[in-house]
Write a structure and sequence with these properties.
Layout: H1 13-21, E1 27-29, H2 30-60, H3 75-87, E2 91-93, H4 97-109, E3 115-117, E4 126-128, H5 130-145, E5 151-154, H6 158-161, H7 171-174, E6 182-185, H8 189-195, E7 197-198, H9 203-210, H10 213-226, E8 242-246, E9 260-264, E10 272-286, E11 289-305, E12 312-325, E13 335-339, E14 343-344, H11 370-379, H12 387-405
Parallel strand pairs: 1-2, 5-6
Antiparallel strand pairs: 3-4, 7-10, 8-9, 8-12, 10-11, 11-12, 12-13, 12-14
Helix pairs in contact: 2-3, 4-5, 11-12
Length: 406
């Protein structure tokens, strides 16, 4: 069901919601996860090879030297990226040795769900299906090993698994003793309908929950973790960056200068988060509680190193998220289902946001350089770093690096 689906796509929000509520687990066999990662790694390698060929063709047809060099391919890094991305949606069921052996046996003997296929250019039919068999057997094995649970097997692959109405042997024997605890569907719709029920949205309750300090703290910590600045990366160019705006400057005559856009090199500590626009709210009754999803814009402000120079800037940005919350379950936590990259703020959007340099504390001050960061926050009101600011930055970096080595 996840083939061709992006982990950040709205179509998987309900899967994330069901999993996050804890009412029902959502999992895929290990083979499925590896197929999802492999699909994207293969496409990446194809594009990489095409780019390398294009660079070589340009080099062959240019009368002067072309110095462009592609970095080495990183297929395993691509695979791991997508494993991590899909792990936010589903858990992984590892296959046992018995499952892998049986899957290979069934392909060798052309036993369902394995089969023979006619392949163009090949003189005889090709045996295939061991991966399909491993997927099926992993789900069946889980059902047998967890007698208190019901397994909902969902796959559009009716060519190999059928539609659930009848099975070829030995798949019939696989299900012996499971009864109604193994349900086979070709669509997620009946599963979603069984565990979720649309209900009326209480927008006031949703806004109350989103407006709590706990919600703002959760978002701020998520932003800090996602775009944290590591002092060891000061001289590197491949650090995580996000689009933001430098705090609007004030001219000598008192007029306000428009906010300057920049690519921030990461938050120094935890930024301040403030609730912005809330839209597209949906509500579902799942189990005993009502769960809501909403698109929420958060206004973030904090400190970030200036790009390309020694200095600290006061930065603001807007971060749009799709979140899950329960207005009826006080113990539930705000969960980010997906998000878009931050975007710069207009000058007027800074109104109402606290000045990072005027906060009662400076984020990230749990280190010996606390006083230095405070001075940098105050100096960050200036348009460009002074010699003193640069010296303070260097001292801060030295202090933090020394602490890390201790």
């Amino acid at each position: 069901m996840l083939w061709g689906v992006s982990p950040d796509n709205a179509s998987v929000d309900l899967l994330k919601t069901i999993r996050a509520t804890g009412v029902q687990g959502v999992a895929v066999p290990w083979v499925v996860m590896e197929e999802l990662a492999a699909q994207r790694a293969i496409k990446y390698k194809e594009k990489y090879d095409a780019a390398r060929a294009a660079v070589q063709a340009l080099r062959d047809n240019t009368p002067w030297p072309i110095t462009t060099q592609l970095p080495a391919p990183k297929s395993e890094e691509v695979r791991q990226h997508w494993r991590d991305a899909f792990a936010a949606i589903v858990e992984v069921l590892p296959p046992s040795a018995a499952v892998l052996q049986e899957a290979a046996f069934r392909e060798a003997n052309v036993l369902a769900p394995c089969k023979r296929l006619e392949v163009k250019g090949v003189n005889k039919p090709v045996k295939t299906g061991s991966r399909d068999a491993a997927i099926w057997l992993t789900a069946v094995e889980y059902a047998h090993e967890h007698p208190d649970e019901t397994v909902y097997f969902v796959s559009k692959n009716t060519d190999d698994f059928g539609d659930g109405s009848a099975y070829d042997p030995p798949m019939v024997r696989d299900l012996h003793g499971l009864g109604d605890r193994f349900k086979h569907y070709t669509s997620l719709d009946p599963v979603v309908a069984q565990f979720t029920q649309s209900t009326e949205v209480d927008e006031a309750a949703v806004l109350d929950r989103l407006g709590t300090p706990d919600a703002a703290s959760t978002i701020a910590q998520e932003a800090a973790a996602k775009w944290a600045f590591d002092t060891d990366d000061w001289g590197h160019f491949n650090v995580p960056r996000f689009a933001g705006s430098i705090w609007p400057a004030v001219n000598a005559d008192g007029s306000e200068r428009p906010a300057e856009r920049m690519f921030a090199r990461g938050w120094i500590g935890t930024p301040h988060a403030q609730l912005g626009v809330v839209s597209d709210v949906s509500a579902y009754r799942i189990g005993e509680h009502v769960w809501c999803t909403a698109t929420v814009q958060w206004l973030l402000t904090g400190l970030s190193p200036r790009d390309g120079q020694l200095g600290i800037a006061r930065v603001g940005c807007a971060w749009e998220t799709r979140v899950l919350l329960s207005p009826t379950n006080a113990e539930s936590q705000l969960t980010i289902l997906r998000s878009t990259p931050p975007s710069p703020l207009a000058a007027k959007e800074f109104q109402g946001l606290p000045d990072p340099a005027a906060l009662p504390y400076v984020p990230g001050t749990d280190d010996p350089s606390e006083g230095l960061w405070r001075q940098l926050a105050k100096a960050g009101r200036n348009e460009s770093p002074t010699l003193l600011e640069s010296a303070l930055v260097a001292m801060s970096l030295w202090a933090v690096s020394r602490r890390k080595k201790e």
